[in-house]
Design a protein that fits this description.
339 residues; alpha+beta; BirA Bifunctional Protein, domain 2; Enolase-like, domain 1; 8-stranded mixed sheet; 3-stranded mixed sheet; 38% helix; 27% strand
Length: 339
Amino acid sequence: MQKLKVFLSDSLNPHLNLATEEWIFHNLDPSQQVLFLWRNEETVVIGRNQNPWSECNLAQMKSDKVHLARRTTGGGAVFHDLGNTNFTFLSPRESYKRENNIQVIFNALKNFGIQGEASGRNDLLIPFPDGPRKFSGSAYREKKDRAFHHGTLLLHTDLTRLGNYLTPNPKKLQAKGKESVRARVANLTEVAANLRHEQIVETMVDAFEKFYGGKAEVESLTMASLQRIPELKAQYDTLSSWEWLYGNTLEFNHKMDDYLSLGFFDFQFQVEDGVIKELQIFTDCLYPQLIDDLTAHLRRQPYRGDTVRAAFTKAREKFTDITAGLDELEQWLCRHIEV
């Protein structure tokens, strides 16, 4: 009989939960069957190779207290909230079958009168009169001795929120068709109105144990778990760091321009590894020394709101007669690059 292990996260911190996935994948005994169930408070999760400044409205996310998290795997941006339950399976590679994990999920959902069906490699669907709609997407990873399958279950997530925080390339929108994609997605509460995360967790653990014919060792994880599991803390420290979230970005250029009370401004940033490598400011502003000072203070600094605010604090000390204009210029810049 295989050893069964279940981890339940009592934390809504996305960096802890993503770190737990990494820890499970890299550090746990691969001969056991593992199930990890978790959810995040409001978070935009981007893929390993995405640029947060070009993908996300960072100022809006900061205003709404929405986390940014970056996966170690590829793919696009997704939005998590408390209506979104996440599952992670780890299996020995030689006995891994994706169908087993899907069956565990379907067996759990049958308790709520939900009949699921699998589509292609990644999606789980439920039938509706106007055609099937997706309630789960998945991704996969493998190493020589282990196989990893993780995905989402949409319970009662706000399907409109992701659009508030993304600034996608117009070509992507044209290619994918924003409305048609949204129309094919459904929350499970559309079928089982009172379904909640706690119920899904209980039935998933039960279905997992019944499928493998054993009793799982269940462990709850919290932020305090970081103090007793060094490998988990190492993953958390990496995935929650500014360097990983923002600095781990290939070189890019960011241009912004507008008419403000001090004149027309055209800022052109060249950013590499999250640091302002080069900066040019084109303007008809009547204070050339201000432009020289801002350029000097911003160059070679982290590309973040704190950097902008520090530069403008110095400018206000020197240019005391244009405080209101400087405030406006600072706020305008921060709206574009806020971190």
